[in-house]
Structure formats: C-alpha cells, structure tokens
Design brief:
Length: 340
C-alpha cells in the first residue's frame, strides 16, 4: 500500500519562498509544529516563527525582543508578537496555548548578519548560534497574545544542568526530555494545572561487556489516564559501532518491559499517535512505514514514494495527532505536504 499526498490544492496551501544561491539555501525553516489547521514555522537563521492558521500568508510573527527591530524592517505588514530575549528553538501548539523553547544567548547580534556562502554551515543544520545549550520553555495563552502585558509562564523555572533536547505537547501537558548519558535520560512532565512529575529512564541493567547500549529515542504513550514511555534501544558492536539489534522497551510503573524486537535494524521509532506506533526505514529512496497497535501487534505496512528527481525532500514527521507530513523545496519554495 502506498500513502498518497493530498490534492495539489492542499499541497499548495502553505508555501514559503526561500533563497538558493550558489547551491546554498538561505532562510530554511526547521521543525514545523502543526496542530489542526495551525502551523508554527521556525526560521532559526532569522530568529523568528511564522504563524499560519488555515491561510496562505502568515498571520503573525513571533520573535524574541532582541531581534524585533530587524524583523519589523523585513515584514512591516505582519503583526509582530514579542517573545523573551534569546534564540528560538522548538515549538508546539495546543487548543489553548503556544509553547516556545528559547535558548539563552548572551550575544545574538550575529544571528541576522549576512554571511558569505563559503562560510555558511550546510543547509540542513541550524546556524552556529543554535548550538544546544540551556533553554527555557515558555507557555503563552492564546487569549493573551495581544494584551499589553502578556503573561509568559516559564515551565521549567528551575533549569536542569542538562540541556533539553526535545519536548512533546499533549492536550493538557508538556514533556521535557533531558539526555544525561547514552543510557540515562530524565523526563519532566508539566501539566497545565500546575502539577509536575519527574521520571528517570536508566538502562544500566542492560549494560554488558560485548555491546554498547544506547537510547535512540523515547516517546510518551498515553493510555487513558496512564502514562508510559516507549524506548528504542540499540545494541552496537563495541569496535565498529555497527548496530547489531534493536529492541523497544515500555517503561511503566518503574518497570521496563521488552515489548518488540525490531527484526530489521534499519527501522527506527518515528512516533506514537493516540492509537498507533510507527516505525520507519528508507528503502530505495522510498520511506517504508510499519504500523503497530498499542498491544505491539503488527497492523500494516505503507510505502511513501518521494519524487527525488524534481524535488529536494528535507524531512518527514508525525505530529501528536498522528498525522504524517513531509517537507520539500521546489522551485525555491518551501512546502509542507500532508500524506493520507
């Protein structure tokens, strides 16, 4: 079975012009956050987020205070919403809130300075000012956006010494993921009712003298009122770093349960929806999806065929609604495609 992209009309819905000069891509967005008909589109090179709501043109721009003046000059006809000073990171959207990650940055003056192409980083990477560091997660009520004094709630008021490498939003909560080591991670849950919980994933019990054990990724699983975590674990050759095997573990009630042996190590955990678990692998330039239910039973396989000859496909992702997207650059336009 092949997944098909939406109609051409839907494909053209969200389009952003970018600049390609001397095979270098400028103003390349990263990690779009999509929820229902809303999109937050980060442009790290210019330190702002475009916001779309069921429209071709952005309705607002969110940018930290330290880069507001430059953004106003470039986009004078779009409403600018100030964020706390710093450098933008990931973002997400819920029914009631926008959530932003803002990195600490003492000097952000270089963010908007033009650079010669030969001095620039590869297009798929963030600029040098976007190197991982300490950050804060800000929660903004949608109803407060245009009030003179916007209330920014800082989710992680007491910062950990370990940088946040990703976060995940649900309807009522935010999960923050901190990497401590290859086999240890800390997860903090903040719900919108001011309750907090903390979890630690520690796979020391899997360590042995023959293989290197690594956490590849962790995804939260929400079953009714229960919270557990699905952990993709790789076992690598000590000398060659080659992956020998992969296993999915579910961490619940402080116990680790081996739930699925990934027979083909080319497959990786892509995401979890409210019904299914998705594994993915590249095969002859196509993306193969394996779909499992919450009982870890195989459901089906899908093949997504990308048109590599005409387009540069940059990334693919599953949002927390279980919708599947990919992005591409075509004729100097950045496009987001939803697959059905």
């Amino acid at each position: 079975m092949e997944l098909q992209k939406d109609s051409e009309k839907q494909e053209q819905k969200f389009v952003l012009p970018i600049s390609v000069e001397e095979n270098v891509i400028y103003f390349l967005p990263q990690d779009p956050a999509i929820f229902k008909d809303e999109i937050l589109l980060p442009v790290p090179e210019n330190n702002f987020y475009f916001y779309f709501q069921n429209s071709v043109k952005p309705e607002w721009i969110f940018t930290p205070k330290n880069t507001k003046e430059e953004i106003v000059k470039k986009f004078s006809k779009i409403s600018i919403i100030n964020l706390p000073s710093g450098v933008i990171g990931q973002s997400c959207i819920t029914d009631l809130y926008f959530v932003f990650q803002i990195y600490e940055q003492k000097d952000t003056s270089k963010i908007l300075e033009p650079q010669e192409p030969e001095n620039r980083l590869p297009a798929i990477l963030y600029p040098e000012t976007k190197e991982p560091g300490l950050s804060k997660i800000y929660l903004i009520q949608k109803s407060n956006l245009f009030k003179e004094e916007k209330a920014f709630s800082i989710v992680n008021q007491n910062q950990s010494f370990n940088p946040i490498y990703k976060f995940y939003c649900t309807k009522d909560a935010i999960f923050l993921f901190y990497k401590i080591s290859d086999i240890k991670q800390k997860i903090e849950l903040y719900d919108f009712f001011k309750n907090t919980q903390s979890y630690e994933v520690n796979l020391e019990f899997l360590s042995n003298n023959k293989e290197k054990v690594m956490i590849e990724t962790i995804e939260p699983i929400l079953k009714e009122k229960q919270i557990s975590f699905l952990i993709e674990v790789s076992f690598r050759n000590l000398n060659q770093y080659q992956i020998n095997r992969k296993v999915l573990y579910e961490f619940r009630d402080n116990t680790y349960h081996s739930v699925l042996e990934i027979s083909d190590v080319h497959f990786s955990l892509l995401g979890v929806s409210n019904e299914y678990i998705f594994l993915g692998a590249n095969e002859n330039d196509d993306l193969i999806l394996r779909v499992y239910n919450y009982d870890y039973q195989y459901v089906k396989k899908n093949r997504i065929v990308f048109d590599w000859e005409k387009n540069f496909w940059k990334e693919f992702f599953i949002n927390n609604e279980g919708r599947f997207f990919s992005t591409k650059i075509q004729d100097s336009f950045y496009k987001i495609i939803e697959w059905k």
